Structure formats: structure tokens, C-alpha cells
Amino acid sequence: MSDLSSLTSSAYSQALEVIASVEPRIAEATRQELADQRASLKLIASENYASPAVLMTMGTWFSDKYAEGTVGHRFYAACQNVDTVESLAAEHARELFGAEYAYVQPHSGIDANLVAYWSILANRVESPALEKLGAKNVSELTEADWESLRAELGNQRLLGMSLDAGGHLTHGFRPNISGKMFHQQQYGTDPETGLLDYDAVRAKAKEFKPLVLVAGYSAYPRRVNFAKMREIADEVGAVLMVDMAHFAGLVAGKVFTGDENPVPHADIVTTTTHKSLRGPRGGMVLATKEFAADVDRGCPMVLGGPLSHVMAAKAVALAEARQPAFQSYAQKVADNAQSLAEGFLKRDARLVTGGTDNHIVLLDVTSFGLTGRQAESALLDAGVVTNRNSIPSDPNGAWYTSGIRFGTPALTTRGFGHDEFDKVAELVVNVLSNTKPGTTKAGGPSKASYELGDGVADNTRAASAEMLDKHPLYPGLELA
Ligand code: PLP
């Protein structure tokens, strides 16, 4: 056991003792969560395992501090240490991504997107209606102004990727606030190939003339050419916003460079910090200088007090991501996704877009005669943790779905490589081939129930255990 892991072991053991002295059930659930994560194949594309240093940074008295405002300009007293933390996190973010400006306060990816949208509106909406009210931008409006403006505001149009093509709720999906604050339209993918069709995006943008063109995705298994998206945005005078929540780690690790790196091309880039970037749960906004002052109004526009303990952990995670080791990690994430995709394809499984070139593999489970819901549940019984996901033109809708989304960031952190991901594909195909759709109580076909063949779950868990034991989660961490 290295010094660091023995320190971590005693720190966590003692922390759990302290927690147990107040609410033992929480201490127990925390222990159990570690045991469960250690014993399962975590393939959820948006999850990872943050380092003990990142996790520990979140468990401090910074959690107790209020610090509304920005560095050096707070609405609360005694924020000198929060200022240090926030400045460091922002500095690491700017250096890591080569951004002009970074805002590290958003509590989550959704918050980061809301901050970005409001800053675009504040920065860009210049309408006669605003002038009439004597306001330069939307942040100067009173409640009564808002009332009269809602009907009158000029261009408040947003064009984003549709949910079933792999976009995110916050990219203009109707039931999300982004689909209400903007007049929204969506672009999809080519029905034949499943790939982004830039000419189709251009045609739609020319017709719709959006204020905001959003690029980025949650479930698209391919890289995006952000230089082309920039061209399209420029042709129609739109602000280009990229949500890199999913692939920020691949940008940080220099796997996505040139046209595939959104930072030099976009006006605003939003991200989460907890997915492929492997930091604490949270969000962040990178922006050009032009948008910096408007992004800084995230609080009070849509945020309250920042989570100082999480900003501190962001600084630690970003410092980790600036190490050379993170670049080799990111490359392995992408290589492993290739191995997983090849493993599926050679076993005749159907993949949306026919493969991957990022960290996501999207399996179409209709070829197994299953819905995404059935496949997700059967896999979970066998210790394979994934999530169901819509596929383009999904015949089973957004609840049952027809896809399973796999991601490689978490198991790559554990040290899985080509052979293990090939084995994962074999196990998944075996589970799904041995799963039959069930019936409803009335005897009709069910989209939820399923029957998993005898012994399949146990055999899969046993085969996984061999790989998981070889690549332990938090090696050397032993709880007393
Ligand atoms: N943006 C994208 C592309 C995402 O995939 C997600 C989450 O899955 C989010 C934003 C929202 O992140 P959060 O769950 O932290 O609010």
C-alpha cells in the first residue's frame, strides 16, 4: 500500500466513524456505495471516478461559506479564501482550455447552460422594444418590462441538436426552460448514416436565422467539426454556443484538437466537470472576452451562492487534468471506445452511426428484440450499469427507448484496456441475446418486463469480477 493510499484509507475510515456517530445509516450507505461501485461494470457515459484528492476537497468547511458575487466583489464578508479558490479554479480552466475567460460557479451543467443563455440574451438582444423601455440589455429590465417584452422581443431563436439525435434537454427541448425562453428548432442527423449533416444544419440555420446555434451532445457517438459550426453561425449571424459537458475530458486531454476543439471556435463553451473531465459534480462556462461581463452575472441572474467547496475541488481536478498523465488517460478513453465498438460489431450488434470516434457507443437493441428499458434492466441484473437512450427516430419513444448508451471514461480510470472492453462487449451481447421480452399482466407484449436466461446474471458477474479484481477501484483504499 503506498503512503497515499494508506492516508486515504485512514482518512475515509475516520470520516465514516464521525458520520456514523450522528447517523450510522448514512455511513453504512456510503460504505455500500463504494462496495457496489467496486463490484459493477460502470459504463454510464456521463459518470467517472474522481480522485480521492478531488473527493476530499469537497468535504470541508468551504461548504459553510456564502460568497454571492464574483472574485473581489462579494455580497458577503470574509470571502478572501473563497476568492483564492475561485481564482485558482478559473485560472486552471483558462490555462487548460486556452479560454479567454472562465466562470466556475455553476452548480451543474444545466446551470452552466442557463448562465450562457442569459448572457447571450443580455449581450446580443438589441431590439426597439428594449430601447423603448430605456434599457440597454435584458439585465436592466424591471418585472413590468419583462411582461411587455415577452411578446415583443426580437430574435430569441435557438437551434440545437434534437434529443433523439443525441442532443440534451437544455438545447431547446420543449419541456425544458430552454425550449420556453427561446423559440426553438432542432437539427437532427442523417437518417441513413446517423451522422451530423452540416449542409442540412446550414440550410435549417439559413431558414430559421437563430440567435443561438447550439452544438454539443449527450449521446452522439461522433466528433463534431466546430469550425464548420462556426462557419454556419457566421453565415446567419448567430452566437455559437458549444456544450462540451460530455467530451470536456477529451478536449482537456488534447484528443480533440483543431476543428474538433470547440474553444477557439465558439463564443461560449459550457461544460460539466464530472463526466470525462473527472472532477467534482458541477458546471463551468468558458467565454470570449466579449461575453465575460454578462457571464459574470450568472449570480444573481440564475445562481445564488456558489458552492465554494466544489469550486475548490474543481481547481484540484483541473490541476490534475493539466498533468501529462491526463492526456494519456483521455487517449485511452477514446481508444477503449473503439475497442468496445469493434467488440460489438464483430458480434453482429447494430451501432448507431456504425461506430464511434469519441467516448460513447450507442447500441441499437431492437436487433435483440428488446426495448432500451428491458435491455438496461437485464444488464443491471448482471452487474453491468448502463443507461437506456433514445436512438434517432426511436420507435419506442423517450421513456422505453431503443438504445443503450455506453461510455468508457469510468472503466478507463480503473485501468481497463482493449482486451477488457472486448470482453465487456462479449458479456453485453451474451446478456442481451439471452433476454426475452416479457408480457403485461393482461398477457400482451410488454416494453418493460423481460426474462433473463437462467444463470446468465451470475455467470456475467463472475466474468466481470475477474476483470474488476484485476483493476480495483481506488487501489489500496481499505475501510476499517
Ligand atoms: N449538457 C449535456 C450535454 C449533458 O449531457 C448534461 C448531463 O447529462 C448536462 C448538460 C447537464 O448536466 P447536469 O446534470 O450537471 O445538470
Automatic annotation (TrEMBL):
InterPro entries: PyrdxlP-dep_Trfase, PyrdxlP-dep_Trfase_major, PyrdxlP-dep_Trfase_small, Ser_HO-MeTrfase, Ser_HO-MeTrfase-like, Ser_HO-MeTrfase_PLP_BS, SHMT-like_dom. SUPFAM superfamilies: PLP-dependent transferases. Pathway: Amino-acid biosynthesis; glycine biosynthesis; glycine from L-serine: step 1/1; One-carbon metabolism; tetrahydrofolate interconversion. Its cofactor is pyridoxal 5'-phosphate. CDD domains: SHMT. Its EC number is 2.1.2.1. Homodimer. NCBIfam families: PRK00011.1, PRK13580.1. Catalyzes the reversible interconversion of serine and glycine with tetrahydrofolate (THF) serving as the one-carbon carrier. This reaction serves as the major source of one-carbon groups required for the biosynthesis of purines, thymidylate, methionine, and other important biomolecules. Also exhibits THF-independent aldolase activity toward beta-hydroxyamino acids, producing glycine and aldehydes, via a retro-aldol mechanism. Belongs to the SHMT family. This is Serine hydroxymethyltransferase. The gene is glyA.
